[in-house]
Amino acid sequence: MPFKNSIRTFSVLLAISLCGTLSHAASLYKGEKSVGLRGGFTTRNTTETAGLYFSYRFSDHFRISPKLDYAFRHKDIDAFSIDFDVEIPFSISTSGRTNIYPIAGLNYSSFSRHLSSNHPDKSDNSSQRESGLGLSLGAGVEYFATPSLRLAFEGKGILIRKYSGGWFNLSIGYVF
């Protein structure tokens, strides 16, 4: 009988330690934050973009990521874009260093249309500003070069009245 009790005690202790290990692994990413720079291209006015991002990971598969981007002037249009995205990362490597993630979120964009250089009254230097709310949908892939260095590529569509377009960005960020 003492042998059966030892096995039972060992089994219970093993189960408790395994549960503790699994709960630690499940919360491994909880609270992870990253901040970084972004650069890319937008199809709306076929120009370059630059921006900043921040992300906060609530669990293995859920994080929020607000982003601020600027689309440089081209075809007499420039824009500021603010995104509040939700990302759901899934590891695609055994090491956990490479993830893919769908993106969905809200977008606020403000577009400035400037008078064309061939406009009859080009001395006016006026512009028209239009702003609006929209949705952003897309996907990304990220690679952790080191535990504190994140590289990523994102492609997403921003659906907004009169100014919908695709945004493609590379980013580099510090993870803490």
How many beta strands in the DSSP annotation? Answer: 9
The backbone outline, from C-alpha atoms, is: elongated
Q: What is the tally of helical segments?
A: 1
Indicate the mean pLDDT.
85
Classify the oligomer. single chain
- Specify Rg, calculated over alpha carbons: 23 Å
Instruction: Give a quick account of the main beta sheet: strands, pairing sense, barrel closure.
Output: 8 strands, antiparallel, barrel
Distance from first to last alpha carbon: 52 Å
Low-confidence stretches: 18-27
Helix content: 10-25%
- Reading side by side through the largest sheet, how are the strands ordered? 1-2-3-4-6-7-8-9
- H-E string: HEEEEEEEEE
Helix/strand/pairing category:
mainly beta
Protein model, in words:
By secondary structure, the protein is mainly beta. The protein is 14% helix and 61% strand. The chain contains one helix and nine strands. The protein has one helix at 2-26; strands spanning 33-42, 47-59, 62-74, 77-87, 90-91, 98-114, 127-146, 149-159, 165-175. An eight-stranded antiparallel β-barrel has the order 1-2-3-4-6-7-8-9. The relative contact order is 0.17.
